[in-house]
Design brief:
Order of helices and strands: HHHHHHHHHHHHHHH
Oligomer: single chain
CATH architecture: Orthogonal Bundle
Number of helices: 15
CATH superfamily: MetI-like
Shape: globular
CATH topology: MetI-like fold
CATH class: Mainly Alpha
Number of domains: 1
Radius of gyration: 24 Å
Strand content: under 5%
Number of strands: 0
């Protein structure tokens, strides 16, 4: 009886959490199911959750008629370019965590101050700078402003502060150079925070909307988020087509998050330790 009584609160908590998870996931499930409905079912009243005659016609139309294949390639290119900023942020975080140099404190404060400046404030000067470098209307110009972030440098600095200084000193005594110490010792130990930053960089590049819309002067350079916004203007209202485009935007993010989930939780936990 005592064991059964002790399990009752656990079962109740599990039921509440399960109901909350189902409620949270319901819009996502509706989007996925609606994306495989024929248009006649998507506009039917009363609406139904499950499709009666599922079809992938909307997905085929996105790629065959609406050039979403090009948008997908552009988005993948922006993501790959953005990933190049992860090791750069790792280097900066390592420098702030393990090196003592004049002006380190004010410089790190300046990095943190960039987190307080809205992105919209810097768009005009960044656009003028890229225009002077002839990078407007290119995928590099779209990805470059998000290459490095103050938050990423902060995460790496916090995590790398937990790396034992004795380990680094022992490597130096053995004759290892600073580059070898970073790539062979510090970076492998930083896998959790690397996973966090990879996911954040992926989400930021994948979901980027306003900046690609500003910097791209040709529709062939649009990303998925911009292409999705064009659906309402290009065709008459088609809920199935819009849900297919939305699913195409959301599912890759979920896949990346699921793959790195364990490392993400550990990375956020350890980044706050010193």
């Amino acid at each position: 009886m005592r064991i059964a009584d002790a399990r009752k609160p656990t079962v109740a908590i599990g039921a509440v959490l399960g109901a909350g998870a189902l409620l949270t996931a319901f819009p996502f499930l509706w989007m996925v199911f609606a994306s495989v409905k024929p248009r006649s079912e998507s506009v039917a009243h009363p609406p139904r959750l499950l499709p009666q005659n599922p079809t992938f016609e909307s997905y085929a139309r996105l790629f065959a008629e609406l050039d979403f294949g090009r948008y997908l390639l552009n988005t993948a290119g922006v993501v790959l370019i953005g990933m190049a900023g992860v090791p750069l942020m790792a280097m900066a975080g390592y420098g702030f965590a393990k090196f003592r140099f004049r002006g380190r404190g004010p410089l790190f404060f300046l990095v943190l101050a960039t987190m307080m400046v809205p992105v919209q404030v810097t768009m005009v000067p960044v656009y003028l700078l890229l225009n002077g470098l002839n990078l407007t209307g290119t995928l590099i110009g779209i990805a470059l402003p998000g290459l490095v972030s103050g938050f990423g440098v902060f995460l790496f600095r916090q995590f790398m502060s937990t790396v034992p200084a004795e380990m680094i000193e022992a490597a130096r005594i053995d004759g290892a150079g600073e580059a070898r110490i970073f790539w062979r010792i510090v970076l492998p130990l930083s896998r959790p925070v690397m996973a966090v930053q990879i996911v954040l960089a992926f989400i930021g590049s994948w979901n980027s909307f306003l900046w690609p819309l500003i910097i791209a002067d040709d529709e062939r350079l649009y990303t998925l988020s911009v292409g999705l916004s064009l659906l309402n203007r290009q065709i008459a209202t088609n809920p199935s087509l819009q849900m297919a485009g939305s699913t195409l935007m959301v599912v890759p993010i979920l896949i990346v998050f699921i793959v790195f989930q364990r490392h993400i939780v550990r990375g956020f936990t350890l980044s706050g330790l010193k």
